[in-house]
């Protein structure tokens, strides 16, 4: 069955026992962020050229781009997001090329276009893993419900907080520590009303920073990406439970249900070649 990755739910992770400043690399934008953006910017210039650029990269060039992509999201995802967001603000002031009369491609679409080159070369799952700052194993503790107000949209939404205890960091222990607890806050929507986690069961959770108008008392927030399997005319939100040390629903990663120790070894050998 073909699996398709979708960003289908908004989930925020609050670090209770970690300091937010460590999530930033430096006050100066890192060289690898600037280099990755320069390649993305030069690869696709105009809206009509999206997915149609004639630039061909060699295997070595794509490997280099993949390493830059990994570092942008693994080492300094907050500044990478803000850097491209700033480029978007500049684009909004002048979206039209006065010389050619063409509409310039939005900055994030340039990033996505370059990412598609990587997907074509290395596969969707490989790029997904390398573009996700951290993977953790967390034990589900409890769930709480509340509401969330978005000042930009001037609307209130239902919110469910899923509380996890971090048991192990599978990718990137720079931002997390075993023994910390995190609140996974899901903002409800009509298509995906929430998740079903079992008490005292462990889960593999991919996470990346949430950057926007949502703030919780100045604490750092994280967004979790979940995977969507296309089933018939609909889709199903899946999680990755680990029961009796067997991880489940991990076909997306190219492996059947297997013991946690073997999965970790396979995961690191298969997807973390740039670590």
**SSE succession:** EHHHHHEEEEEEEEEEH
Which sequence of strands runs across the widest sheet?
Answer: 1-4-3-2-5-6
Distance between the termini: 30 Å
Report the major sheet: 6 strands, antiparallel, barrel
The oligomeric state of the chains shown is: single chain
Q: Helix proportion of residues, in percent?
A: 25-40%
Secondary structure tally, helices: 6
Into how many domains do the coordinates divide? 2
Taken as a percent bin, the fraction of beta residues is 25-35%
Radius of gyration: 19 Å
Average of pLDDT: 78
Q: How many beta-strand segments? A: 11
Class based on secondary structure composition and strand pairing: alpha+beta
Q: Which regions have little confidence, pLDDT < 50, spanning 5+ residues?
A: 1-26, 213-221, 225-235
Which term fits the overall shape? globular
């Amino acid at each position: 069955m073909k699996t398709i990755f979708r960003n289908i739910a908004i989930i925020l992770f609050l670090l209770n026992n970690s300091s937010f400043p460590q999530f930033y690399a430096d006050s100066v934008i890192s060289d690898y962020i600037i280099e990755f953006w320069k390649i993305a910017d030069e690869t696709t210039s105009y809206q009509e050229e999206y997915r149609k650029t004639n630039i061909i990269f060699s295997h070595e060039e794509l490997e280099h781009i993949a390493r830059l992509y990994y570092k942008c999201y693994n080492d300094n995802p907050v500044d990478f997001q803000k850097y491209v967001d700033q480029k978007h603000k500049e684009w909004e002031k002048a979206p039209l090329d006065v010389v050619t009369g063409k509409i310039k491609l939005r900055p994030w679409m340039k990033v996505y276009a370059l990412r598609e080159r990587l997907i074509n070369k290395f596969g969707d799952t490989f790029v997904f893993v390398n573009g996700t700052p951290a993977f953790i194993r967390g034990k589900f503790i409890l769930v709480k419900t509340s509401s969330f107000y978005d000042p930009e949209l001037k609307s209130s939404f239902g919110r469910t907080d899923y509380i996890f205890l971090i048991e192990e960091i599978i990718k990137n222990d720079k931002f997390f520590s075993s023994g910390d607890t995190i609140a996974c806050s899901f903002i409800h929507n009509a298509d995906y009303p929430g998740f079903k986690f079992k008490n005292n069961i462990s889960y593999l959770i991919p996470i990346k920073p949430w950057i926007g108008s949502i703030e919780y008392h100045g604490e750092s927030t994280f967004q979790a990406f979940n995977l969507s399997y296309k089933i018939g005319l609909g889709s199903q939100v899946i999680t990755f439970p680990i029961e009796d040390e067997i991880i489940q629903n991990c076909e997306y990663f190219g492996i059947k249900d297997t013991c946690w120790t073997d999965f970790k070894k396979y995961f690191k050998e298969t997807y973390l070649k740039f670590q």
